[in-house]
Amino acid sequence: MMSTIDQQNLKAIVSDRAALIEHLKYADTAPLLMVLVHLGGDPAWLDRIAPHIKGPWSFHDETPDALRAELREAVADVLADYAATGRPLPTELPMDLLPRMLRACTGQEVPPEYYPMVGEEMDLAGTDPKTVHWRATPDPTRLAAFQVLVVGAGFSGVGMGIKLKEAGIPFVIIEKNEDVGGTWYENTYPGIGVDTANHFYSYSFDNNNDWDHFFAHGDEIEAYIQRNAERHALRDQIRFSEEVLTLRWDEPSLLWHAEIRRKKDDSTYTMTANAVVSAVGMLNRPKVPPLKGLESFAGPKFHTARWDHSVDYKGKRVGMIGTGASGMQVGPAIQPFVKNLTIFQRSPHWAMLNPLYFENVSDAKKWVLNHIPFYTKWFRFQLFWSSSDTFHHNLRVDPNWPDQAHSLNAANAEVRKALEAHIASEVGHDPELIRKATPDYPPYGKRMLRDNHWYRMLTRDNVDLVTEQIDHVEPEGVVTSDGTLHPCDMLVLATGFETRRMLWPMQVEGRGGATILERWGDEDPRAHLGITVPEFPNFFLIYGPNTNLAHGGSAVFHSECQVRYIMQGLRELIETGQAALEVMPEPFWDYQERVDAAHRQLVWSHPGVTSWYKNGAGRVHAASPWRLVDYRNMTAVFDPAEYEFTAVKVPA
Ligand code: NAP
Predict the structure, then answer these.
(1) Residue 2's pLDDT is what?
(2) What's the whole-model pTM score?
(3) Ligand 1 in reach of 612 Cβ (< 6 A)
(4) pLDDT for residue 141 is more than 90
(5) Which of 167, 177, 332, 540 has the highest count of CB atoms within 10 angstroms of its CB?
(6) pLDDT > 70: what percent of the chain?
(7) How many angstroms separate the alpha carbon of residue 605 from the centre of ligand 1?
(8) Is 576's C-beta closer than 6 angstroms to any atom of ligand 1?
(9) Which residues, 6+ apart, have CB-to-CB distance to 174 below 8 Å?
(10) How far apart are the first and last CA of the chain?
(11) Rounded CA Rg of the chain
(12) Which residue from 257, 305, 258, 308 is spatially nearest to 281, judged by alpha carbons?
């Protein structure tokens, strides 16, 4: 049912038709068409406009201006009709028209298996369908005595806290930093931003219509997470500047015992919890490369995730080691200001252009997102689809494909051709630079990056791309294996994170007395659905093993899948009055085999690729092999049959 405020809002919008039409000029065609067909119900509009929508991004829209003008008038008519009649806006997706609508919206076929996920993501009724509701009113004494310890207050930890709070489950979040934000709090390097369109890279229950960029900068995302922590009054439950050192499962009490360090005075204390949720992520502990002589370097040196803003890079000779997502953002941001930028590249990444990457969201567009009913939902869906599963089939090895070293299949080879053409168009006059900047391995083998003018930057006079490998570091600079000393005043280590030793340096000791790192053998983390581990009762991971999205999608989407699953696990414990749940070895190993079998067919296992997705033995431990729809379906319903439950011990 439409609220009074919505009705007033609608009346205000339609009261000045000329202004409304003017605003609608800034709407994208596809989401506006969806609004019209959803509210007006006339499918004829789909036939007229669909042929002009060539793909899921707004820049794929080729609708003629005259037709767009007609669309605007029709939308204004429909909104005026709702305002005049006071009819409620329909909050259900029109299932009879949905296939045609989704096809028109994306320029692609959206198979029916996606409909439940689309409905959830769009949440037209604003009821947050991912919320886990109690099936029976929980025993208030049991609920009040239950305590969840969440480690980390980044995107996932805050999302977890919001859902625990809504359910009334007591919890504490321990955060080592002074504020919320996690990776977006810690990474402040020049050029920091997100590669996923952030109207989608955001909580599904909090669509933000006021992003300033289609691909937000770091501080904007940090502020968004902080806003959510405030809106849901989480701060009182977060203990800042404290770090969980150890977690030990105590079998007699069936509780986790956490040893926590207060950073302000280095003192420690212990707390107990019925359940622990690790929301520390994979990309949190900087990896400092073991380069000979690094400590002898005379100038400032720091990791991208520990950017030292007291150091002025302007006019300096900067050496940057690493060309992953972080390095690729830092380079173009500092190059115009430095005397010289020497980039030490071990292996190149592929990078794709997206025209929206550099664009601001205009105030007019924000108005449309904020005021036109459901526009923001369709806009989000369009982005969701454009960056989700559409590429997954390109990443599967075709055993009959002749050129396995460079591409995996015909579609992947096409992507490679387009990416090579892009590199050539940016640095075309320099075949040597093209050779250095072009990866040997197939597209998507490492994380696909966004070209933020990286290639253009490589052509600048003050930039050197060094592909000779680093031999050692001296006080004056970096010496490569050909004996050349590359003089540097400062060094930036864009060398990534400790992704193999997941959860490190936290010590997590499970039921059998072994730590999780001992179980995982230091670089082979495994978890059922990336979330639970045998012998670690009531211990849940968000963004755990094999959950990093490498083909597309948004990390927030995955995190919400995991939060829903964990909430169902906790509900099972609390409602049934059981003390502990632990995933059984059979479903755990069955899942591992399915993950490994899937990965054997996919690009991330490619022998020509080294990446943080893979461990030293070549097993892909970080990347998810699944399409979003698969992972959503696997985690949507917690299956108690996969778990062993331990009853509460009754004192003798
Ligand atoms: P990364 O992708 O792991 O890149 C690390 C870079 O350092 C690679 O180029 C690597 O070379 C190089 N390197 C590592 N050790 C080295 C050594 N001993 N000698 C020489 N080179 C060395 O790390 P990242 O760039 O920080 O990105 C990590 C992840 O964070 C990304 O994949 C992404 O998921 C996320 N991220 C996202 C964004 C975004 O959304 N825009 C931005 C930053 C980070 P090799 O490739 O040869 O190993």
Answers:
(1) 44
(2) 0.96
(3) yes
(4) yes
(5) 540
(6) 99
(7) 18
(8) no
(9) 149, 150, 151, 152, 238, 239, 242, 243, 244, 258, 260
(10) 55
(11) 26
(12) 305
Structure confidence by residue, pLDDT tens digits, 355-396 = 899 999 999 999 999 999 999 999 999 999 998 898 898 999
| Token output for 381 | 């869906």
The vertex-360 CA angle with 357 and 364, nearest 5°, equals 135
Those residues with Cβ within 8 angstroms of residue 448's Cβ, 6 or more apart along the chain or in another chain: 349, 350, 351, 352
Q: How far is the CA of 321 from the centre of ligand 1 (A)?
A: 10
DSSP labels, 462-492? TEEEE-SPEEEEETTEEEETTS-EEE-SEEE
pLDDT tens sequence across 213-251:
999 999 999 999 999 999 999 999 999 999 999 999 999
Alpha helices, DSSP H, located in 358-489: 363-371, 375-386, 410-427, 431-437, 454-458
- Mutation pick for ligand 1 pocket among 155, 196, 213, 283 (CB with most ligand atoms within 8 Å): 283
Sign of the C-alpha dihedral computed for residues 406, 407, 412 and 414 taken in this order: positive
Residue 332 contacts residue 454 (beta carbons within 8 Å): yes
Q: Which of 639, 448, 623 is nearest to 544 (CA)?
A: 623
Q: Answer whether 256's CB lies under 8 Å from 248's CB.
A: yes
* Residues ≥6 apart with Cβ < 8 Å to 503: 278, 280, 516, 517, 525, 541
With CA atoms as reference, report the closest residue to 393 among 603, 105, 592: 603
Task: Please report the domains of the chain, with CATH numbers, ordered by start residue.
Answer: 4-110+364-386 (no CATH), 140-192+236-285+501-592+624-647 (3.50.50.60), 294-350+406-439+443-493 (3.50.50.60)
Q: Whose CA is nearest to atom 46 of ligand 1?
A: 347
In sequence order, the 6+-apart residues with CB closer than 8 A to the CB of 24 are: 32, 72, 75, 76, 368, 372
